[in-house]
Design brief:
Strand content: over 45%
Distance between the termini: 37 Å
Structural class: mainly beta
Oligomer: single chain
Mean pLDDT: 95
Order of helices and strands: EEEEEEEEEEE
Shape: globular
């Protein structure tokens, strides 16, 4: 499977942004997740959605502000980011997993990474 992430940009704190992750090629993955990596920090889990039944999980940092979704017909996952904070500034990556994850998962379970898209939140 190939993943193409897009939608990053520069926004002010409190504003919204929507990321997209278009999938193509071999399917059969169980879920699509979003991760982010801020400057000088390790990559961290943000959210995941199971592809078949749309179950969703969020990290505590984004719960209540971010909404993950997928359009199976368009083979695309989305991350709607609302009420953005300065600390949300990071490169955001989408990724697939073949594992039957029941919640947040680590990089060790990632099957394919998309290229990152930069989100910068300014004051």
């Amino acid at each position: 499977v190939q993943l193409q992430a897009s939608g990053g940009g520069l926004v002010q704190a409190g504003e919204s942004l929507k990321l997209s992750c278009a999938t193509s090629g071999r399917y059969g993955f169980y879920a699509v997740g979003w991760f982010r990596q801020a400057p000088g920090k390790e990559r961290e889990f943000v959210s995941v959605i199971t592809w078949r039944n749309g179950r969703k999980y969020y990290s505590e940092d984004v719960k209540g502000r971010f909404i993950i979704s997928r359009d199976a017909a368009e083979n695309t996952a989305y991350l709607q980011m609302n009420s953005l904070k300065l600390e949300d500034t990071a490169v955001y990556y989408c990724a697939t997993t073949l594992q039957r994850v029941l919640g947040p998962f680590g990089s060790d379970l990632v099957d394919t990474w998309g290229q990152g898209t930069l989100v910068t939140v300014s004051s």
